[in-house]
Amino acid sequence: MTEISGFPAYNPLPRDNVKRLPPAAARSVRKVAVAKPSPWSFRPADKALPWLLPLLLLGLWYLGVERGWLSEQVLPPPAYVYESFADLVSSGDLWLNASASLQRVVVGFALGSLLGLALGVAMGLSRTLEDYLLPTFNALVQIPVLGWLPFALLLFGIGETLKYVLIAKAALVPITLCTLQAFRQAPRNLLEVGQVYGFSRWQSITAIVLPAAIPTLFTGFRLGFTKAWLSLVVVELVASSEGLGYLIVYGRQLFQLDLVMAAVVVVGALGLLFDRAFDYAEKRLDRGRPRLGGQGA
Q1: CB of 84 within 8 A of CB of 256?
Q2: pTM score
Q3: 214/186 Cα distance (integer angstroms)
C-alpha cells in the first residue's frame, strides 16, 4: 500500500493469524417468579398510618381540655361532642338536616357538571369559541360565591333556587377548566394514527380523546364537588332554615359549641366519603386503559 507522509504504510495482518474465540455456550433463560399480591393481603401498618394524625389531634384536644389548657367555653370536651352527635342521631335531626344538604348539593352539582361539560367541550372543539369565551370566563370565576349572593338574592329570592344556582356556579368552574384541558392534552400521535385510519371527528373523540381524558375529567369532578360542598355550607350559613350549615349557625347562636363541632365533624366525614367515592369510580373506569410514555397499566 502507499505510504502517507509521516506515517508508515498500513499492512493488514494475514487472516490466519487472527485467533477466533470459541462460540459461547448457550445459557438457559432463568425465570424469576414474581409473587402477585393478593387482593386480600394488606399490611396493618399501611392501613393505620392515615389514622395517626387524627388520633394525635384527638388526644391533644382531650388533654388540652382536661389539663385546663383550653377552656370548655372555647372548645368543648370530646365527650360533649359525642353526646350532641348521639342526640342528633336519636332525635332524627341529623338525618333531616343531612338529607336537605345532600339534596341541594346533588342538584346543584348535577347542574354545574352538565353546564361545565358542555362549555368545556365546546371550547375544546373550537379554538374560536375559546378565544371569545375563556378570557371573560376566567375574569368572572375570580368572584367568590358570597360576592354573587346579593345579585342572586335579587334574581332568585331566598328559596331553594338560590342555593342550587350558587352551588352550580361553584362546581361549574373546575369542571369547565378541566374538561377544556382534557381536550387540549389529547395525544397527538394517536390522533394522527386515527386520521391515517380514516377516523371521523366523532370517532376520534370517543375512541382517543375521551379515554385519555378520564383522569383529568375526574380531577375536575372531584374539585367541582369539593367546591360545591364548601359552597353548600356557606350558603346554608347565610340563608337557610335546615341543613348542616344551619345546624352550625343554630349552635353558634345558642352558644352550644358541642353542637357546632358535631355538625362540623359530620360535614367533614360526608365530604371525605364523597371524595373516596369519586376516587373509587375513577380507578374503576381507568382500569385497563393503556398508558402513554411506556407506563404500565
Answers
A1: yes
A2: 0.72
A3: 11
What percentage of the chain carries pLDDT values higher than 90?
Answer: 9
Are the C-beta atoms of 137 and 177 separated by less than 8 Å? no
Q: DSSP states of the chain as a string?
A: -PPPTTSPPP-PPPGGGPPPPPPPPP-PPPPPPPPPPPTT---HHHHHHHHHHHHHHHHHHHHHHHTTSS-TTTS--HHHHHHHHHHHHHHTHHHHHHHHHHHHHHHHHHHHHHHHHHHHHHHHH-HHHHHHHHHHHHHHTTS-HHHHHHHHHHHHTTSHHHHHHHHHHHHHHHHHHHHHHHHHT--HHHHHHHHHTT--HHHHIIIIIHHHHHHHHHHHHHHHHHHHHHHHHHHHHHS-SSSHHHHHHHHHHTT-HHHHHHHHHHHHHHHHHHHHHHHHHHHHHHTTPPPSTT---
- Cβ contacts of 7 within 8 Å, gap of 6 or more: none
State the residue for C-alpha cell 369532578.
221
Span 96-118, pLDDT tens digits? 989 989 999 999 999 999 999 99
Distance, CA of 229 to CA of 146 (rounded, Å): 14
Confidence of residue 199 (pLDDT cuts 50, 70, 90): confident
Residue 293 pLDDT > 50: no
